[in-house]
């Protein structure tokens, strides 16, 4: 079980001596845990710490264990910690295929990229310019790009906030479905109650 | 580490140069056996009959050009921001900025001289058969020089205004002021301009310091007997009699004093304008008459565009002109003879490209290492070498080199060029570099990519357009340098600009035309490449085309 869990062991983050947040939490494989709280409560700061991008003004203590390994002191690129933001952040100078290839690990690259695109209804999109895609299509490419890099956990930073209401439900279901299929522990930060309800897992509320 | 080195590079020569003028100005000049401190150099300078008129000229031309440039840029932006004319003008601003001052000055001379384009048009109209006997260029009051400086500084200020616009919230402010009954121009000056001016203040002071101390434009368009102080200092520095150097050093310090005095005058002018504006706001007048400046702002934009472009066109015509009689609008015959005197041209061209190329490569390496380490330099540091007049610290640097027995030549010139190239490259590039969304790097790392890979494959390709643009500006800045090349090169480094300015007194219009065209090509070609290259490389990437 430890192989597929994300464990936050007594994590405390402070700014200038003031404690912003304290979290002690285990996210199991295939589980989505939602962290809610007003802006300024340090939700995104926690994700920045988990990905290894905490600005130096902050101080953090505690450990993050991913599949039993302490990743707290690893460089960002070795953490296998996937993340999706509210913007798709597709690399504008690369084609859709190159975007996926940039993250993909391992062999059989062409066929795996084709399969990944097909699995989200984007067959044959390899050569497309990301700027010509619709918002929903771009979100799907961003999701597959992250999954092809074979992360061991997935972080979601208000990932659906910029999608319009109709699209939001579809993309949300798609992200949760794929994360569950791959047995990823998912930690989602949001201030949208509907996101938390759709996730169907535990909800942790941070105070401001 | 990089930042410390760059800070030393930008501040070191300026500080050393200041020491190098203070010592000889107060009598310490061992190279000619003077080691006692005193005020002889200043006394000699003040005794020179031209001293007071040349100081007066420096102040009037410098302040005049700055006033004209600020009024011009504010009227143009008031009339045009948000219109299609503004979009068209925007495209031209980069090349206008890149054009060396000396080239623009020659271009203006070709237009307004008694035998220039404007008089020829009038002559055709009124049937004159000889040019009027008027002193227009090098006029004793410096009007031609003021015009030439303002024409070149307005595009610079407009670029700074463009950078300041996003934070000024101009469209909504204009809507609100419009709803309150203010016309566009009144609304602009009462609600938008204060926000913009706050951000372009440093560049405005830069224009003032530059205009009051400029040498090349003054040699080409300015009064000659006496010339503005900066030109007089340059002449003294080039005097074979080394004793003249202490007088020059005293002049260099007076020049610094002039700049500071002009700064305080400008500061007082700013206060008065603010008080004036507050008076209008408190009075609540809607100033409907302000709208009459609108066509004037538009006309200024067109006039500057026309003068800068026509100046180069006429320079190009002169460079291939055979006989060109007055008042004909085109040469009577064409010849390539002026281009055939090639050796000096090719040597100067090679030297220009070599220096500019090396300076730009150095600036590129510095910009890249700052970007890679995610560090930036404070703006004041970048402005420091631009605010202190060249004609104040370069003579000092030359004198120090003399003390230390350092050879003048290519390498010192390169270093001094870099002092001026680097601030422009970094000021231009840092904006785009700051605006790069750091979350791309977070995504890259989450995908398992190293910092180097993120830098090379994500950050650089996405910033290549702004980076090339900044380097092109840096190249043009180097091409346009006159005084650094002249003083630090010790007469041994000859670039297109030093050669061109040297031609000013000779009046060989064909050869001036050749050098003006060569300067234009050297300054603008990198610009064209920087604009086209990303557009070609990213032709299939819509998300990259806005820059």
Question: Would you write up a description of this structure?
Answer:
The complex is a heterodimer of chains A (208) and B (547). Chain A has two domains: 1-80 and 151-208, 3-Layer(aba) Sandwich (Rossmann fold), CATH 3.40.50; 92-150. Chain A is 32% helix and 25% strand. Chain A contains six helices and nine strands; from the N terminus they run βββαβββαααβαβαβ. In chain A, strands 6-7-8-3-9 form a five-stranded parallel β-sheet, with helices on both faces. Chain A has a four-stranded antiparallel β-sheet with strand order 2-1-4-5, covered by helices on one side. In chain A, helix 2 runs parallel beside helix 4 (135-148), helix 3 (109-119) crosses helix 4 (135-148) and helix 4 (135-148) packs parallel to helix 5 (165-181). Chain A is globular and about 50 Å long. The two termini of chain A are 33 Å apart. Helices cover 76% and strands 0% of the residues of chain B. Chain B folds into two domains: 1-14 and 339-547, Orthogonal Bundle (MetI-like fold); 56-228 and 298-335, MetI-like fold. Chain B is built from 23 helices and no strands. The interface between A and B is medium-sized, with 30 and 24 residues.
Shape of chain B: globular
Determine the strand fraction of chain A and express it as a percent band: 25-35%
- What count of structural domains of chain A? 2
**Stretches of chain B where pLDDT falls below 50 for ≥5 residues?**
none
- Helix count, DSSP H or I runs of 4 or more residues of chain B: 23
Instruction: Write down how many β-strands of chain A occur, each being a DSSP E stretch of 2 or more residues.
Output: 9
Strand content of chain B: under 5%
The biggest beta sheet of chain B reads:
none
């Amino acid at each position: 079980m430890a192989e597929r869990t994300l464990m936050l062991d007594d994590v405390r983050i402070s700014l200038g001596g003031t404690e912003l947040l304290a979290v002690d939490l285990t996210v199991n494989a295939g589980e989505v845990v939602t962290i809610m709280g007003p802006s300024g409560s340090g939700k995104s700061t926690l994700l920045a710490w988990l990905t290894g991008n905490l600005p130096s003004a902050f101080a953090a203590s505690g450990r993050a264990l991913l599949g039993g390994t302490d990743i707290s002191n690893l460089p960002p690129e070795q953490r296998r910690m996937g993340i999706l933001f509210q913007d798709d952040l597709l690399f504008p100078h690369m084609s859709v295929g190159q975007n996926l290839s940039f993250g993909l690990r391992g062999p059989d690259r062409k066929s795996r990229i084709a399969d990944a695109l097909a699995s989200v209804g984007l067959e044959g999109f390899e050569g497309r310019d990301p700027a010509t895609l619709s918002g929903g299509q771009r979100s799907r490419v961003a999701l597959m790009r992250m999954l092809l890099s074979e992360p061991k956990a997935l972080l979601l930073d208000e990932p659906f906030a910029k999608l319009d209401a109709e699209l939001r439900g579809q993309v949300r279901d798609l992200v949760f479905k794929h994360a569950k299929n791959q047995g990823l522990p998912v930690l989602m930060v949001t201030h949208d109650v509907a996101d938390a309800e759709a996730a169907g897992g535990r909800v942790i509320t941070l105070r401001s | 580490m990089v930042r410390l080195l760059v800070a030393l590079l930008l501040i070191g020569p300026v500080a050393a140069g200041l020491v190098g003028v203070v010592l000889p100005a107060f009598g310490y000049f061992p190279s000619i056996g003077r080691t006692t401190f005193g005020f002889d150099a200043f006394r000699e300078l003040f005794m020179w009959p031209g001293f007071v008129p040349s100081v007066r000229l420096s102040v009037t031309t410098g302040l005049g050009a700055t006033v004209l440039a600020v009024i011009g840029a504010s009227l143009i932006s008031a009339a045009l921001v948000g219109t299609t004319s503004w979009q068209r003008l925007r495209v031209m601003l980069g090349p206008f900025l890149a054009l060396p001052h000396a080239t623009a000055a020659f271009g203006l001379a070709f237009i307004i001289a008694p035998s220039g384009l404007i008089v020829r048009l009038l002559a055709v109209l009124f049937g004159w058969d000889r040019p009027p006997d008027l002193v227009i260029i090098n006029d004793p009051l410096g009007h031609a020089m003021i015009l030439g400086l303002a024409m070149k500084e307005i595009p610079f200020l407009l670029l700074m205004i463009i950078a300041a616009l996003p934070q000024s919230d101009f469209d909504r402010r204009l809507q609100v002021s419009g709803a309150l009954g203010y016309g566009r121009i009144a609304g602009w000056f009462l609600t938008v301009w204060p926000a913009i001016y706050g951000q372009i203040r440093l560049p405005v002071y830069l224009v003032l310091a530059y205009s009051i101390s400029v040498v090349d434009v003054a040699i080409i368009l300015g009064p000659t007997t006496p010339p503005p102080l900066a030109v007089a200092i340059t002449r003294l520095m080039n005097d074979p009699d080394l004793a003249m150097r202490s007088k020059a050093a005293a002049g260099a310090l007076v020049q610094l004093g002039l700049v500071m005095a002009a700064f305080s005058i400008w500061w007082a002018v700013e206060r008065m304008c603010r008080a004036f504006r507050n008076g209008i706001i408190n009075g609540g007048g809607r100033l409907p008459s302000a709208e009459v400046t609108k066509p004037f702002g538009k006309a200024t934009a067109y006039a500057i565009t026309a003068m800068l472009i026509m100046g180069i066109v006429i320079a190009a015509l002169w460079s291939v002109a055979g006989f060109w009689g007055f008042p004909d609008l085109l040469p009577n015959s064409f010849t390539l003879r002026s281009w055939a005197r090639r050796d000096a041209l090719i040597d100067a061209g090679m030297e220009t490209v070599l220096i500019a190329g090396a300076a730009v490569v150095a600036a590129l390496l510095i910009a890249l290492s700052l970007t890679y380490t995610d560090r930036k330099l404070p703006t004041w540091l970048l402005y420091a070498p631009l605010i202190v007049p060249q004609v104040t610290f370069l003579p000092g640097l030359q004198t120090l080199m003399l003390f230390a027995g350092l050879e003048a030549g290519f390498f010192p010139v390169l270093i001094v060029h870099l002092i001026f190239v680097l601030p422009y490259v970094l000021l231009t590039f840092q904006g785009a570099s700051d605006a790069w969304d750091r979350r791309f790097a977070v995504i890259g790392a989450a995908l398992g990519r190293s910092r180097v890979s993120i830098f090379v494959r994500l950050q650089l390709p996405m910033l290549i357009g702004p980076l090339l643009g900044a380097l092109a500006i840096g190249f043009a800045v180097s091409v346009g340098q006159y005084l650094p090349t002249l003083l630090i090169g010790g007469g041994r480094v000859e670039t297109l600009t030093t050669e061109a300015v040297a031609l000013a007194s000779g009046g060989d219009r064909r050869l001036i035309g050749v050098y003006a065209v060569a300067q234009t090509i050297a300054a603008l070609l990198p610009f064209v490449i920087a604009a086209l290259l990303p557009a070609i490389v990213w032709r299939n990437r819509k998300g990259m085309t806005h820059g």
